[in-house]
Amino acid sequence: MNPISQIKLEREDKRIKLTLPYNSTHIKKIKTISDYRWHPDKKHWSFPYSEDIFKKILSLFDGENIHLDSTLHRLAEETRKNEDFQVLRRELIFRKYSPKTVKAYLYYNRDMLKLTNKSPFNVKDSDMKDYLFYLAEEKKAATSTLNVAINALKFYYGTMLKRKFIYEIKRPRKDKKLPVVLSKEEVAKILSSVDNVKHKA
Predict the structure, then answer these.
(1) For 108-141, what is each residue's pLDDT tens digit?
(2) Which of 10, 47, 98, 180 would be a feasible disulfide site paired with 69, CB 3.0-4.6 Å?
(3) How far is CA 141 from its chain centroid?
(4) How far apart are CA 141 and CA 25, in angstroms?
(5) Which stretches make up the Core-binding (CB) domain (predicted)?
(6) CATH architecture for residues 77-168
(7) 3-state class (DSSP) for residue 190
(8) Where are the domains of the chain?
(9) 141 contact partners, CB below 8 Å, separation of at least 6
(10) What is the maximum span of the chain, computed from C-alpha positions, in angstroms?
(11) Helices marked H in the chain — which ranges?
C-alpha cells in the first residue's frame, strides 16, 4: 500500500492527531513543529490544536494525500477562504480602491459564502442569484447596496477567478421615490408659520 495514502489528521480534544507510517523524511518534518509528541502505544503523533500549527502541517505535507476528519476539513475550508480573501484584499488595495470599498467587497463575498456554506470554487450562478435575492427580499437592501454587492461578486469571481457566468447577473432597477404630497392641513400649518405676508401670496 502506498504510504502517502495512509496519512491521517484528526482532532482529539485540544490536540491534532497525525497518523502515518514510518518515514525518515516525514519524521524530520514532524520535528520542525513545536510541542510535538509521539505516542508509542497508539502509534501516532500529536500537536497542540491551533490554526497556525494545522496550516504548518498541511504546508509540510503539501502535495500528499491527507485524509482530514470532518472538523479539520471545515477548518481547512475556512483557512483557504481566509487566504483567498487576503489575496482579494491585496488586489483591491493595489488597484487603489478606497478603504470603504475594500471593506464592502470583502464583506459581501464572505457573507455569501457564509450563507451558501460553500467554497468559492463550488459556488454556482444560482447561489449568487439566491444571495442577491436574499439581500433584496430578506434584508430589504436598497438598489445602491445591491449594486455594491454585485460589483463585489463580479470583481472576485469575474476578475480574479475568471468565472464568466457572473456577468449574466442583471442589475436591479433604480428605486423610485414617490413625490411628497402634503395634506390641506399640513399646507395650512406651513403657511401659518410664515411671518412675512409676502410669502403667503
Answers:
(1) 999 998 898 887 878 888 899 999 999 999 999 9
(2) 10
(3) 19
(4) 55
(5) 76-161
(6) Orthogonal Bundle (1.10)
(7) helix
(8) 3-68, 77-168
(9) 135, 149
(10) 100
(11) 24-30, 51-60, 70-94, 99-116, 125-137, 143-153, 184-192
